[in-house]
Design goal:
single chain; mainly beta; Jelly Rolls; six-stranded antiparallel sheet; 1 helix; 10 strands; about 45% strand; globular
């Protein structure tokens, strides 16, 4: 069994900060579950371009308000508590936070822990994966 308390990873290498977000990585590739699980904060009044070319992601909003826009041609969906979206086609998107968003994110394949978005909003493919 794997048990992780959020408070135990705050301020550690599993608490990854970027300019517009903070990802607290609860479950990682090394734990061999086949997916990773993140408690992510999106900073208020920010916009982040993201394009997970090497990962599929499902996101469940538990706090805040914002929107997600598929690019380049839309559509745009409001984000609010209770809303889930899944990027099942490696969708390129803009994530906009009106207020702080708190999102629970699941990635397949799982991330290793220290990934940050590159200049295209992409996480690198994990070693040994076909991306």
């Amino acid at each position: 069994m794997i048990v992780t308390q959020l408070e135990d990873i705050l301020g550690t290498e599993r608490d990854v900060h970027a300019e517009t977000w903070n990802s607290r990585r609860l479950l990682l590739a090394g734990q061999k579950m086949g997916f990773s699980l993140h408690d992510t904060l999106i900073h208020p009044e920010t916009e982040t371009e993201i394009w997970y070319q090497n990962h599929l992601e499902a996101v469940y909003c538990i706090e805040g308000e914002g929107e997600i826009e598929l690019i380049p041609d839309g559509p745009t969906y409001p984000i609010q508590p209770g809303m889930m979206y899944a990027l099942n086609e490696n969708d390129r998107h803009l994530l906009r936070a009106k207020t702080q968003l708190r999102m629970i994110c699941v990635f397949n394949p799982p991330v290793t822990g220290q990934e940050v978005h590159d200049e295209n909003g992409v996480y690198p493919a994990a070693a040994g994966t076909d991306a």
